[in-house]
Amino acid sequence: MVPMIVLRWRNAFLSATSFLSLVIVPGCGDGKPNVDTSRTEATVSGVVSVKGVPATGGTIHFNPSNSGRIVPTRTAEIGPDGSYTIKTYTGDNRVTYGGEVAKKNTGVGLMKDYASVHTGENKINFDIMGAGSKRLDVDFTKKSRPR
Fold first, then answer.
1. To which H or E segment does residue 77 belong?
2. Alpha-carbon distance values, 144 to 36, 136, 137, 138 (Å)
3. Which of 15, 17, 133, 146 has its CA 20 to 30 A from that of 120?
4. Which residue, among 35, 34, 33, 40, has the nearest Cα to 118 in the 3D structure?
5. Domains and CATH numbers, the chain
6. What is the pLDDT of residues 68-114, one digit of tens each?
């Protein structure tokens, strides 16, 4: 038989632990990240470069979809000098590339960049595979030596 005092202490401990866990653990909300769900549009312009050299054509795509806003991707042409101008929604946008810039540079069509778009005019330049890039350049033209 367990002494009555032990049961009281155990019940008091469990009650205190339960109360503290409710106070310490913050609310989880709806589990979605804090994202921009507005339909506010902004203009983004800049230059797309490949390894520091302006791209000479192709397309740039801004996808402003997120957990609170499902909208189509916006597309703009990359000019002969690498410049582009696009109108997209504010907030974080996933940026991808297509057309000529992807055909001329292996792997660029699979790359994803991100841009945080704010209200008003935005100037964002992209240097695909540029200096400081973590992408690996592999030269497949070199032949391995026979062993």
1. strand 74-77
2. 51, 19, 17, 13
3. 133
4. 40
5. 41-126 (2.60.40.10)
6. 889 999 999 999 999 999 999 999 999 999 999 999 998 999 999 99
